[in-house]
Amino acid sequence: MKKDELTAAYLTKAEVRFKALGFYKENGAYSDVVREAQELVELLLKAVLRTIGVEVPKIHDVGRVLEKHRRLLPPALNNSLDEIKRISKRLRKERELSFYGAEDFIPTEEYDSTDADMAIKDAEFVLCTVRSALTGR
């Protein structure tokens, strides 16, 4: 495993974004919580790919790529990969709707505190798992 400056920057950006989730939730911006949680998870998983020396694809859900290279993952990530993949896939599905919405889907009306709480819980799980695997803390 290698950890370079860009990988470290991804982890730092994810930690800052995690703090921002609380701000969005406190202000009732539940759709923004979901969108930012997705980006946070994406950054973390791309940091993992960089760390194990795998080309980072330009897609939003890299769960399948992680699965393909499962043997290269640290044990903590390997043991949690199924849950991490589930989280990444679910948040990826919400990515565009939570940000742009649609004619029949107004993000500020469709998302609620329950959605925000789930996104925060999932983002925290991925953050803690990846942070521990990459930094030991």
UniProtKB/TrEMBL annotation:
One GO MF annotation is:
DNA binding
Give every HEPN domain span.
11-126
- Domain of life per record: Bacteria
Pfam families in UniProt: HEPN
Per UniProt, the keywords (alphabetical) are: DNA-binding
The reply on keyword DNA-binding is yes
Q: Is the keyword Signal in the record?
A: no
Q: What is this protein called?
A: DNA-binding protein
